[in-house]
Amino acid sequence: LAARLQGFGTTVFAEMSALAVATGSVNLGQGFPDTPGPAEVLDVARAAIGTPLDQYPPGPGLPVLREAVSAHVQRFRGLAYDADTEVLVTAGATEALAGAMLGLLDPGDEVVVLEPLYDSYAAGVAMAGGVVVPVPLRPPPAPPGEVSTAPWTLDPAELRAAITPRTKLVLLNTPHNPTGKVLDRAELELVADVVREHDLLAVTDEVYEHLVFAGAEHVSLAQLPGMRERTLVVGSGGKTFSTTGWKVGWVCGPAELVACVRTAKQFLTYVNAGPFQPAVAAGLGLPDAYFAGIAAELEGKRDRLVTGLAAAGLPVVSPQATYFATVRVDGDALAFCRELPHRVGVVAVPSSVFYTPQHADLGRDLVRFAFCKRDEVLDEAVRRLTA
Ligand code: PMP
Ligand code: GLN
């Protein structure tokens, strides 16, 4: 294995999903829904297969999808992006993020990232020769058997202290995986201040933008004054349309920055997901009620799972958004998650793997459970955990 990929053996998602299959466990590990997406989206994909849409789409993505991405970001964030020059379709958010790192970083450039950090960030930065500088989010206290609804916190001093003369960009993720935190206005203003003051770039991963629960509101960093021109906004159809296997993502930003990602993308995948692109375009055009509906449905699942986990005696932090709830366990989270399928037949993901070695202590006992599953699956998991 190349030096730059040392330590990136197998992703925890692959390990835990394989363990779920091998042990016949209820899989609350990898975040993917177990019900199909909306018929309006699926039908378009079905109709596209067997047509010329099966062949290479244009490099930047099909115009119908780029226009739909542009209209969607205008509708929900009030931001205007030119569909031809300021929108790029990618193979999921994963490629958008890796492409942004490859297109923007020089060796040794530092990337400030909230920690815990989604696992592809560290690998994406490393493949580009960059260096991750983590800024920890801290969980609220959660007594055993209780559900905490307080948000995870970000210390402004720690964010400011992370900036050095080598800092190139801030890689933000809100709503945040694995914590489920939604950055509030004050936190976004803080990030924006730091980015502007130090003349940095920002990349913001907003794949959970529509999975936000009552009491929280998603705002894009690009909506803050002076930020649109220095920010790449990354999105994906995977979560919003329950089609995580389609890998249709996108990036919006000023033309010069999008061009950097496009240069990298050309030689990573060139193009992707021909027949799925018009389907995701149809999804992005669904009425507001669709987007509100998926959040409301998921909120019920969140409550079902966190109540169940607390009843099983675990200290639970209820998320403001996303697919994921966090619990604190006795001892090491990775060992706990490797044993849990054998002990009770449930798979979860150790949030400890989303921490850098220097902050291993902060995450060593944190475990993430996904609730994007049918109610009976959640109930069965809770039954097994309680037994
Ligand atoms: N970013 C975050 C925070 C995620 O949780 C995920 C995957 N669930 C991705 C990016 C990857 O998205 P995609 O499947 O569109 O590549
Ligand atoms: N993003 C999903 C999660 O966090 C799954 C990602 C993956 O399997 N790479 O669980």
UniProtKB/TrEMBL annotation:
Domain Aminotransferase class I/classII large: 26-385
One GO MF term: transaminase activity
Cofactor: pyridoxal 5'-phosphate
Cited InterPro entries: Aminotransferase_I/II_large, Kynurenine-oxoglutarate_AT, PyrdxlP-dep_Trfase, PyrdxlP-dep_Trfase_major, PyrdxlP-dep_Trfase_small
Name of the top EC class for this enzyme: transferase
Domain of life: Bacteria
EC number per UniProt: 2.6.1.-
UniProt entry keywords in alphabetical sequence: Aminotransferase, Pyridoxal phosphate, Transferase
NCBIfam families xref list: PRK07777.1
Cross-referenced PANTHER family: FI04487P
Name of this protein: Pyridoxal phosphate-dependent aminotransferase
